[in-house]
Recover the amino acids of this structure.
């Protein structure tokens, strides 16, 4: 059986003993950032995009990762070998570190750990969302602040929904762990431009990796979502997943739409096709 | 030398080895609440008020502490004896717990740890603040979310200030770890009513423990602060501390005022006098 070692500030530890002192600023003050990428048969997908964002997030909240990009890639390679990773995810978490007074910024703690992932190689069935009026703080930074999202778990479950869509001042923004897109009735693919985390899958779509369906960044209100022909989300793990109902109301005809399906088909072929 | 043991979900551990697995939802998702009270010569101050708030905060974010109030008090008593605590602080931190997928709510983790405190038995000198447009999420709940406050540390330091005062929609709310009060030019003591954490020292003042100067709860804009005769903050560790300047502008005559001083004198006598 493969090991499941975790790397913390230079040390390799078995997952069962990988731990942070209670004085760490993540535990004391919720202070940290992270990034997450997937491996397909042991090969990282879009690694440089994730590392770009990781270093950007770290700088944005005054945390020095203490390791440069080549050295970090070497650790990732070592983890892939050591843990015999195939289809898997790797998470980089950078926290404020062990703080003697539990408040002042300390030497940051970098944790690198891996997990098995059941990769979805074809588009999943349609999902349903509920809406919630909320704006993530520091939206452009991939912080560990999921207070609202975790708090909403029972609400989502009680509604029989799969996830939540945030909006604020009537503008739609994002899901807690995914970007949001609509397809208008005239076939335009739109994704919110402001107050969101720029996901890597979203970035790839905006760069035009899916021929014929390049989205545009544009803020839109909730009413536009209910007038849309289709809706979907994107994320590293979900890739493209159709959204068929929000707050119990169907989007379009309440089924995964043709544009979503065509985009997903191209994207899955691009990522898994070879 | 006294031990410094930490209690985690029923186990006593030396502080040096007290740690949470990296899968804990505090580390993964910033999910948790806490409370903090002080001991004067080994005696907890306002313990029931802090425990009231602790259990309220826990319920508000769907976390069961797994221990009832009498049992929790017994642990606190045991910690006081075991760690030979005199003037000290005790912090109760309740997190989302070790989550197999790093996202779903798990069995909560309760950490109880103590720290020495240099108690201030007389009013400190005046402090200075900067302002920041921010609204804490779930303000009535004492969550571990201090993302904004920790992020502002370099800004506060660069400004030569001691702390930050939050405001939103032009209404003043609070400091990250303290409540905020003004004394108007006609002698009324006011503290914001909405979108704040109800501090225990604030509660005591509102209950009238300081004769002749019972504050009223009232929301006010930043402009009222600059028109005020005096300003001060309250917290468990700071008790009452005068605020003499905000954003580089003096409050009143830029010195601790007579109402603040009179209130502090009574409060320190009440807490430390016997």
């Amino acid at each position: 059986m493969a090991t499941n070692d975790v790397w913390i500030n230079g040390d390799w530890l078995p997952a069962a003993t990988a731990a942070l002192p209670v004085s760490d600023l993540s535990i004391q003050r919720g202070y940290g950032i992270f990034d997450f990428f997937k491996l397909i048969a042991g090969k990282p997908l879009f690694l440089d995009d994730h590392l770009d964002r990781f270093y950007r997030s770290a700088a944005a909240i005054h945390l020095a990762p203490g390791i440069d990009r080549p050295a970090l890639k070497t650790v990732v390679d070592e983890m892939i070998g050591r843990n015999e990773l195939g289809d898997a995810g790797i998470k980089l978490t950078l926290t404020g570190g062990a703080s003697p007074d539990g408040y002042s910024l300390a030497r940051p703690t970098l944790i690198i750990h891996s997990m098995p992932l059941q990769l979805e190689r074809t588009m999943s069935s349609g999902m349903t969302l509920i809406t919630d009026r909320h704006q993530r703080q520091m939206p452009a930074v991939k912080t560990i602040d999921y207070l609202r999202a975790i708090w909403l778990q029972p609400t989502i479950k009680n509604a029989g929904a799969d996830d939540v869509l945030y909006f604020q001042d009537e503008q739609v923004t994002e899901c807690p762990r995914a970007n949001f897109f609509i397809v208008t009735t005239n076939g335009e693919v739109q994704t919110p431009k402001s107050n969101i985390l720029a996901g890597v899958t979203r970035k790839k779509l905006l760069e035009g990796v899916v021929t014929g369906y390049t989205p545009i960044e544009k803020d839109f209100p909730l009413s536009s979502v209910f007038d849309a022909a289709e809706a979907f989300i994107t994320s590293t793990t979900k890739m493209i997943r159709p959204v068929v109902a929000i707050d119990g109301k169907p989007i379009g005809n309440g089924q995964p739409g043709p544009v979503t399906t065509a985009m997903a088909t191209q994207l899955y072929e691009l990522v898994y096709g070879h």
